[in-house]
Structures are given as C-alpha cells and as structure tokens.
Amino acid sequence: MDVRLASRSGFCHGVENAIEQAARVLEEGRPGAICSLGEVIHNRQVVDRLAEGGLKVLDRPEDVSAGDTVLIRSHGAPPEVIETLRRRGAHIVDATCVLVTRAQTLVRELDSEGYQVVVIGDENHPEVRGVVGYGHNVICVDSPEQLDRLPSGGKLGIISQTTHSPERFGEMVGKIAARGYAELKVVNTLCLETRRRQEAAVELARQVDVMFVLGGRQSANTRQLARLCENVGVRTYHLESWEDFRPAMAAGAAVAGVTAGASTPEWIIQEFVDRLREA
C-alpha cells in the first residue's frame, strides 16, 4: 500500500518542552514526590513511560505535600491552583506552553481594561479552565447555541483556545459581531503550528483513499484533525496507535494518509507507517 505521511505532524514545541522538563526533573532525583497536576500531555503511551520513571499524576493541588516537586503541564493552570501549591510548600516547575501563557496574560489585561472577556473554546478543556482563571466572570462559548451566555450589550474582549482552527474561530467571531455590540476587541491566540498541521492534514486527505489520525482520545487538537479530514469527505479513523488498527479499515484503499496530533511521539507515528506499509 502507498502510505503517505503529512508534511507536519507529531510533537509541537510546547509538548516537547513539557516532556523534556518532566524528564529533567526525574533525572535530578529531587527529594519528595515528583508529580504533575493532570497528565503532562494527552497521550497514554508517553504518560505511561513517565510514570515508569517515577512521575505521579495528581488531580488536586490539595494532594501535594511540602517538598514535593510539581510540574505544571503545557495546558497551564489557574492562578488559584498555583497559589495553593505555593502555600503547601511545593517546588513548582512551570512547563506551560508560551502560547497558553500569552492567552492567560491577555485575559488579565482585557479584564483590567473593562472588557467582558470571552474565550471561544471548550470550557472543560484543561487549557481553557486554566485561562479563564485569570479574569473575573470570563465567559466560554464554543458553539452558536451557547451565544445566549453572552450579555446583550457592552464591550467584549475575545480570544480563542489555542488549538482551534481559524475557520472555527472566525465563524464564532462573525456570529458574535452580528449581535451588534458597541465594541469588540478580538485577539488572535491561535497556535500557528496547529494551523499548519491542520492545513497539511487537509491537503493530504484530498490525495488519499483513507486517512489515519494518530493521537490520544482526549487530545483536542487530534480530534480537530480528524474532523477536518472527515469534512474533506475521505474515510477517516482516529487511532491511538497501531494496536487500534484493523485490516478492514484499509480495505479497498490504494493510498493511505497518516497524520498525528501534537502529543503523539515520533516512534508511534513511525511504527504505524511502517506496519501499514507491510499490511
């Protein structure tokens, strides 16, 4: 089978940084527990490898003890969580993606300038939960059906979840603008590398008979890649690794395309490509 890999796929800079910092902390052998609040990245295989090295995954800052080392993952964390960790005497290693840090800063600035801050994003995504904590009464909307959450007037300051597509962000901003607000301040917080990967995935999807998108089930950017490929009209499968592959998925296909989310390591991508070529 002819198997083609997207020109851009796999780890982004923010994910690479988080994993490198986690590995460095584990190698240093600090006293106390070494842990992260939530999984460092949305990839089960990478999380399992870090766990084997001694990294614990905690859900609450209250579970941290004095002297523990806590890694803030690439998604960031709300300021109240950081403050709780400091009060509990934890050593904090901040691996927040620089783009997420910028979004956090923008929320604080827009809020201080008197804007009703609006984040276009999934309110349950860890990045968004961290970002909204930097303002007062920040509103999240992620679909036209949620626009009723917005006030009827005033001035809005709008940013986006970094992993959203430009099309999705633009559609939502357009619908908000149509509601007739006196002032809108829109700041583009989209990740350029995410956009490039999305464009590469769509370009490849138009050339193949079946598309495989590799990445964690909880990875928002991987799910978005799969949606974009499906929208092209090509048969698309979102898999975590080769273990999820079934021969019927490639039945009748002469050309297969492969892309991967920003949390998918190179070894998973390469194994999948190699084995698919042999299938």
- Helical amount among residues, as a percent range? 25-40%
**Rounded average pLDDT:** 94
Give the percentage of residues in beta strands.
15-25%
User: Which second-level CATH architecture of the largest domain applies?
Assistant: 3-Layer(aba) Sandwich
Radius of gyration based on Cα positions: 20 Å
Count all strands and give the number: 12
Which fold name corresponds to the CATH topology of the largest domain?
Answer: Cobalt-precorrin-4 Transmethylase, domain 1
Q: State the name of the first-level CATH class of the largest domain.
A: Alpha Beta
Outline, from the CA principal axes?
A: flat
Low-confidence stretches: none
Strand order within the widest sheet?
1-12-10-11
Number of domain units: 3
Broad structural category: alpha/beta
For the record, give the distance between the C-alpha atoms at the N and C termini, rounded to a whole number. 8 Å
How many alpha or pi helices? 9
Encode the helix/strand succession as letters.
EHEHEEHEHEHEEHEHEHEEH
